[in-house]
């Protein structure tokens, strides 16, 4: 028996948090074998999560402290 | 890198060296400049009050970021106490959006069906820009939970305490965030405004290569 795309998607998202049960794994794999969009979902989700971990903390222009905020904070630290 | 050694606390140097980075982090989490400025200030004040907590095991920057992360969590806790329903409302909207990706039988709607992404799309620098924009479309608390989970490995139990909600809810928030982010990225990569019909998915050279 195969899962629906919605169920398969939920299982793939949940498998990040818990090991799937054997029946769930079988349903998911049967579904993935038959469903190209869900195989893409799996691949793209993995790529997206890799990219989230690789996001840099670099700062862009509008994410800088304003001069006023900087002065105010500096004054409080005295 | 010697400036601001906590053995001789030099908060002005901390502010000069790390202020922008701390602010950018806080701003991405709380999406409000005034609140982010307050968080930076609170972080530096806390660091100044307890420089002995810095044990030299890591850089000053890492130490300050550790304090800031806790300040952001405190911010969410107090927000949750003040207005728990506002955040629950936007989260319910995300739930409806994600449910809308599927038809009544649980199949993909044509507009949401995963399609092939351009070759190498995920390696280009625009991808991380698109990712940031998509994170901003999530409800703020959902984005926070997602980032803490995926980037910092915080447990679901811990998140439920920190964000003032149940583990089940955190679980659902995380799963929805993953599904919604993929959808948002696809629309960004393929230039697909929400609600438009997907074209035929031709030319996916990698379609047969799934393990």
Summarize the structure.
The complex is a heterodimer of chains A (78) and B (211). With 78 residues, chain A is mainly alpha-helical.
What does this structure look like?
The complex is a heterodimer of chains A (78) and B (211). With 78 residues, chain A is mainly alpha-helical. In chain A, helix 1 packs across helix 2. The longest helix of chain A is centred in the middle third of the chain and has 19 residues. Chain A starts with a helix and ends with a helix. The mean pLDDT of chain A is 89. Chain B has 211 residues and is an all-alpha fold. Chain B contains 8 helices and no strands. In chain B, helix 1 crosses helix 2 and helix 4 packs across helix 8. The longest helix of chain B is centred in the middle third of the chain and has 23 residues. The chains are: A mainly alpha (78), B mainly alpha (211). At the A-B interface, helix 1, helix 3 and helix 4 of A face helix 1, helix 2, helix 5, helix 6 and helix 8 of B.
* Largest protein-protein interface: A-B, 45 and 54 residues
Low-confidence stretches of chain B: 1-6, 196-211
Strand tally of chain A: 0
Enumerate how many helices of chain A there are, as a single number. Answer: 4
The sequence of SSEs of chain A as H and E is: HHHH
Report the structural category of chain B.
mainly alpha
Using only CA atoms, what is the Rg of chain A? 22 Å
What percentage of amino acids of chain A are in beta strands? under 5%
N→C terminal distance of chain A: 68 Å
Q: Total number of helical segments of chain B? A: 8
Overall mean pLDDT of chain A stands at 89
* Oligomeric state: heterodimer
